[in-house]
Amino acid sequence: MTTVSNVVVLQFTDNTYFEVSTFPLFGKDKVIGRILSFRDITESKKSEDLLRDKERRFRLLFEHSNDAIFIVKDGMIQDLNEKACTFACVTDHAIVGIELNDLVNNDQLELLHTIIRDSIKYNFSKAEIQIKKANGEQIDAEVSATLVDKKDLIVQLIIRDITERKEIERLEHENQERMSLIIDNINCGVVVIDANTHEIVDVNITALEIVQHKKEDLIGSLCHKFICPSQIGSCPITDLGQSIDTSERVIIRSDGTKVPILKSVEIVNLSGRELFIESFIDITDIKKTENELIDAKINAEAANRTKSEFLATMSHELRTPLNSVIGFSDLLLDGSFGELNDKQGRFMANISHSGKHLLNLINDILDISKIEAGKMELFYEIFDFSDLVSDIHLMMKPLSSKKNINLEFNMRPRSIFINADRSKLKQIMYNIIGNAIKFTPDNGKVHVDISMKDQILLLSVKDNGIGISSDDQEKLFHPFVQLDSASTRKFEGTGLGLALVKNLLKLHGGTIDVESEQGKGSTFYIEVPLNLKEKDLNARLITDENSEDIVQTSTISSADDLVILEPENSDGSEPLILVVEDDPNSRELLSFMLNDAGFRLILAEDGAEALEIAKEVHPFAITLDLNLPGMDGTEILENLKKDDCTSSIPVLVLSSLGEKDIGMIVGIVDHLTKPVDSDRLLGLLSNLVTKSGKTSFKALVIDDDPMVVEMLSEMIRSFGYGVITAGGGQEGISKAFETHPDVLIVDLMMPDVNGFDVISTLKSDSRTINIPLIVCTAKDIESDEADYLNSNAFTILQKGAFSKEDLLGILGKLEKPSGEANSSGSCKGGM
């Protein structure tokens, strides 16, 4: 009898599982039925399903891991994933069943076995090793070994390729070594600081020498204990948010000494760690030198002030007596107190000549001293260089005529506007042309050529004189150098003129050069920047470069034909008005009004044109708009009032500015140096007489030097003017209020109440504000003083450098009617 049973698993609708076993039931050796056995296996079934799911997931992870995974038993590879195949397989899974030793070279075998033994012993082991791939390539790898079956001693190896990481570490190590090498060999101290903790990480040898500490004492210490102790809690970078700190700080040495340093800080990031690289140098010697330089600077400034005070005193003390020597000798030579016999006249002329020669020497020495001390100041103004050429021609003509020298001036174009110090350029030309005449023999020739190119004034002075050797040319412009003692006995001089010329040109940004040959003559070449903001100011004045016309300064032709608007039934004698206005409507309105009133008119649209026309035709009056393009009305006024040809022309300002007296704001009418030209001074006085309607004219002379007062008084009286004198500033103020003079002549350097006090007082009082004021001083005028005087004084005379003719010329300007003020011929003409 057999007992065959069947076992099946049934799943019921409620998701339960039963194992059903059936057995046959026998009776008398016959199957009479079957016995069914049910066993609930629901939980067991769920556990099996979960286990299979886990196995599936594990396999997925195993196969798709980024790391190579090997399953090893007894040194043999039992299984491996897809990534492991790229390491060790030639064909898929060809390595299964072979020894693990094939993964490494012989020198790495012991390390690999150690990793496996440690994992069996400690359940886990990890190390870095070199793995040999199937293609023979060696790679750096990180091997993690885990015991996964203690019974069968099965180990799982996870191999991770760390080749890139090892390369990065290698490069970083090289960079660190390179930085350490640089830091240790750099000439300045270097400290590496952790940006977060402020602990010192590294320090170079130079830093150790500066701080005088051992390296072990610094590493790990707070930087603020040694560097910038005053900045604890206020670090410029971490606390104040500054990216870089470059400044002077201090470090503390082991003995507590504070050492000044110049420190720079850079922020770097190395291996994810933010560091401060602080470099510094010991500036103890620099600070010592700096303090010495400061002391030297203070001493030099004190010495410079002393020198300046000495120069000012010398200027006053030397020029004042020379003023009397020259002034009184000229008065006697003029026959103001009777005629002199021949011997007396000759002796007096010698006195005057020697005084003037000494004055020139003093002026040159003072100018050189001011240039060397950086005290020489330039007073820039825009003017037509042709006017300066005319003045020089008139000054040089007597010198050239005395030796019968042909003095020629060639200027193209006819007018060249320049922004420069007029008096300094005049001094330069006087020196160069004067030397050419002095060193040219009788009946010789001196040719002066003036032109412009690329905003540069070009001037050449050529003579056929004694010439200069090539050796002497090298020292020609050195001060106090006289080329030949024999020649200096024949040609008087100090050796200062050309040195002064070169320095004055240098202040203007100009240059001077010379070409010369002994026995044949010399040519001096001068270049001076025009320094004009309006580059096209001279453009319309440039004539054809191929023109052969030579323009002589004594016969400079007038401008192109001008259009004169005449009133109805004009006979050409009506007063001529120059209207300067850029607005067409305003010009038309003024034209109608003035023509209708019986005036003749000339119209100008800009400043340059207006200045040229004013000098050409010398109009009866000028109407001027201040708001002009390019050269504005204020600049035009300044140029009109500083030019002998146009200074006496009445100007009616048409402006919305509302100034009570534009003339007072604009400044001086003229600038003269003593000896004063009496004709010019008297011309100015005559203008004032006419304007005031008085029949007499009196001048108030204010000076603390009795000889100066006497000399000026005699000069003025010789022309028939009245004189009031005051021996000091306070007396002068009182007499000005009492007598109300027609003009004031004031010295600046007086005790107690000086000339500036006098000017300030009289110009702030309504009774005396409009009295013309002439400054007569031996003082060197500073720039701020010049600005003040230009706003308040009629003109400035330098003691020791003016003649009777200069003084009387100014007074004549003030006295003569405006239409006659320039009848002497210095202007270009009239209409």
Order of strands across the biggest sheet?
A: 5-4-8-7-6
Please state the structural category: alpha/beta
Radius of gyration: 53 Å
Low-pLDDT sequence parts: 485-489, 543-560, 656-686, 816-826
What is the β-strand count? 29
Main sheet, how many strands, which sense, barrel? Answer: 5 strands, antiparallel
What is the molecular shape? elongated
Instruction: Specify the number of helices.
Output: 23
Polypeptide structure, described:
The longest helix has 50 residues. The strands form 7 sheets. A 5-stranded antiparallel β-sheet has the order 5-4-8-7-6, with helices on both faces. A 5-stranded antiparallel β-sheet has the order 10-9-13-12-11. Strands 15-17-18-20-19 form a 5-stranded mixed β-sheet, with helices on one face. Helix 7 packs antiparallel against helix 8, helix 8 crosses helix 13 and helix 15 runs parallel beside helix 16. The protein has 831 residues and is an alpha/beta fold. Helix content is 39%, strand content 24%. About 8% of the residues have low confidence.
